[in-house]
Structures are given as structure tokens and as C-alpha cells.
TrEMBL record:
Keyword Glycoprotein included in the entry's annotation: no
Region of interest (Disordered), residue spans: 1-30
Pfam families (UniProt xref): MFS_1 (PF07690)
UniProt name for this protein: BY PROTMAP: gi|472585378|gb|EMS22932.1| high-affinity nicotinic acid transporter [Rhodosporidium toruloides NP11] gi|647399512|emb|CDR44350.1| RHTO0S09e02960g1_1 [Rhodosporidium toruloides]
Family annotation (PANTHER family): MAJOR FACILITATOR SUPERFAMILY (MFS) PROFILE DOMAIN-CONTAINING PROTEIN, PERMEASE-RELATED
Keywords of this entry: Membrane, Transmembrane, Transmembrane helix, Transport
Main location group: membrane
Entry's transmembrane regions: 88-110, 164-184, 196-218, 266-290, 302-320, 332-350, 356-377, 389-410, 422-443
Amino acid sequence: MSLTPDSTSEKQHIEQKEFASRQPTNLDAEGQSVDPAFAKKTVRKIDWNLIPILSALYCISLIDRTNVSVARLLGMAKELKLTVGERYSIITLIFFVPYIIFELPSNLIIRKLGPRNQLAAITVLWGSVMLGMGFVKTWEQLAVCRVLLGVLEAGFFEAGRRMAWFYLSSMVVSGFSNIMGWGIGQLSGKHGYLGWRWVFIVFGAITIGLGIISWFIIVDFPDRAKFLTDAERKYAVDRVNADRGDALPDGATAAKVLKHLADFKIWLFGLCFCFATTGSYAFAFFLPVILAGGGYDTKTSLLLSAPPYAAAAIYTAVVAHYSDKTRRRAPFIAGSAILCSVGLLILAYAKPLGVRYFGAFFTIMGCQSNVPGVLAYGSTNVLSHSKKAVNSAIIVGLGGVGGIMASTIFRQADYPKYIPGLWGTIGCQWATCIILVGLSFYFKRQNAKADRGEHVIEGNPSFRYTI
């Protein structure tokens, strides 16, 4: 809604006063309306109840969707003939088709079912599918299991520092899952099963166990959090309302969803996420394969896949800290995209394998950091539960498109260097920078108009875009 200052300045002033009167004030720890010790205790209680279990579930979801790369090196490719044509690419990309399709419905119904019921149920179910993958006899059966995995993981929904800490914990664990996979693979021959089958069996059992545990300890939204007292619950809801104005649900109708889908910003956030996940999925699926194709043996290839993720976790934490401190998102996302591009060029054209491996550090640091970075960027620039649900669905859904792109541009015909795939990923990073420049100019202009009383952003007179 655009308004001219001459006809609406008085109306805008009244709207801002009315909106402010409905909002709680001084809810920060430094404010006078709430005891700082009480505020700190409440936030810490929420964090300790929320972050550990969600981090664990997110860890296992990333491991379960990407551990086919470990299984491939441990004998799956040979036994299921995955090197014939593009079979390996098919079983990696087919996961993302239902993952994209079911993302939006899952985001819209989670409020009705509640996070605890939905997340616990789908975690147990996808763990069962993962365990079943250890007993498949053909690559077609494996593909069917990957489809079911995509359907179920679509129901697992994903600012600032908390978003990054949530993600980087899963980044470290999923990176070191290749080492875990190598260790599990040493069970090869036990009960007549090869090592790659044990990878699926063991990780599937772990996933089922986590799903059962999560039902007992996971928390719902602030207004439903039973572990909080009435005073703490009120503070949690008021604090979110004061910050974003959307702690309470606004109801998702077909008209609202269509209106939200017409917002071009959501699609641009989604494209940035797509380009970030293209790199992150590509190296989850293909880094061990690239290292093995370069001359390292299977054990070394899997062990060397972990250190870049540890470096990426440290880098992500630093970027998140300074992004929060400066209240800027786009410059840090663009910087990480450039870092990723440098790493990709090293991987593509350096001669010594050790130098190419060094390039993998820059590549993984850049693309992995941008996964939580883009999520935070999109989340802080929309309001209302219904729009956040649509925004999350589009972003994560297009993240699935990134997975499909990663699976298709890294072709078996280009093994072992995958030069076309590396250049495709470089193009994604450059496209991200172009989008960020355009959005930054747009956000600055809209914020300036809102400051002058000419425009109301997202229906909230006090809201401003985060650049």
C-alpha cells in the first residue's frame, strides 16, 4: 500500500499511535517493565528446551538424506549398479520431488497438529524408511525409499544467532557422519550384510529412537509451552509481538496464501536459498566421490570429508555473530557466496589434489553459511504466521530444487572432476549476489518511504526491512 504524504500523514500518525498502544513496551532485558533477571531466565529456559532437540532432529534429517554418498563408497554403487548411466543422480534427486510438493501443506498444518505430534511422528516414520533401505535388493527399490523419505522429511520445518547455532550444530555432526559411516561400515559381513547396508540400518534405528524421545521433550509454540509459567508464557508471547507483531496465529486462508504467493520477495529469498543448497547438497553427495576419484582410497576420502564442515561451522558462527551485531544480512550472504566461488574455482582448476581439497574448505564454508543466513534473511523480512509459513515453504521448497540441480549438474559422465557441475554452482553464487544487490536497493527505498510516512510495510507502521 503506497500513500501520499499530503493526504495521509495525519492518518499514518494515528495508525502508528494505535499500533504502538497495542504493543508491550520495554521488553528487552535492559527495559524497566520486566525484571532483567526474569527476562534472561525465560529466554534461557526456552532455548534449553528448544534448541537441543531440534538440532538433534535436524542433524539426523541431514544425515539421512545425504548418507547415500557414504553408502556408495562402501559398496552400494557396485551391488546396485549405480554407476550405470545416471542412476546415482536419480536416487539423489528423486528425494526432492515429494520434498518440494509436500513442503507447503506441512507448514500450514503444523499449527493444528502441533510441532511435537508432527515432528515426532514423521521422524519415527522416516527412520523406519531409512532402516528399510538397508534391505533393498535393487536400485529401483532404493529409489522408492528415497521418495518416501522426501514425503516425510517435508514435514520437518526449519533469527540470527539462534538460527545459525541451530544449523551449525547439525553441520558439524552431518560432516562427521562420514567418519561415523566409515566406522559403521566395518560391520560389513555381520549377519550377512555388507557395510553400506549397516549404514542405513544403524542410522535408521537412531532416527527412530530420536523420534520417540522427541515426543516427550519437544515444545510447542510460546502460547502453548507448558514448561513455562503463566508469567513466562505471557512474556514470551509479548516479547515476540513487540519485536515482530506476529506471535499469535492469524489463520491461513486460501486468499491469504495466494496473496502471500504474489509477493516477489518470497520467491527471491527462495532463489537465494536454492543457490545456497545447490552447493551444500552437491558436496554432501559428491565430495567423497570427488576425493576418491582424485586418487584417495575409500577410507581417506570419507575421513577427509569431515574437516571442511568443522571449518564451516566456525565460519558460520562468526558470520552469524557479526550479522546480528551489525543488523545486516545481505552483505554477509554475498561475501559467503564470493568465498564459495573462489573455492569452486580452486577445485576446478588446481592441479595438486591437496590444493583442490583446500578449495573444498572455501566452497563448503561459503555455501553452508548461507543456508541459515538466507533463512534468517527471509524470516526477518516478512510478518504474520501465515506469511511466514508460506515464506518458509517456498524457501525450503526451492532449497529442494537446489538439491535437484546438484544431482543433475554433477553427472556421471563428468566424473571425477565434474567441471560442468562446478561451473553451474559458481553461476548460482554469482546469481545470489545479483539478487542481493537488487533487494538491498529496494529495501532501502521502501524503508525511506516508510520513515517519511509515505508507505506502510507489511501492514505494520513500525516495521522496517532488514538489509
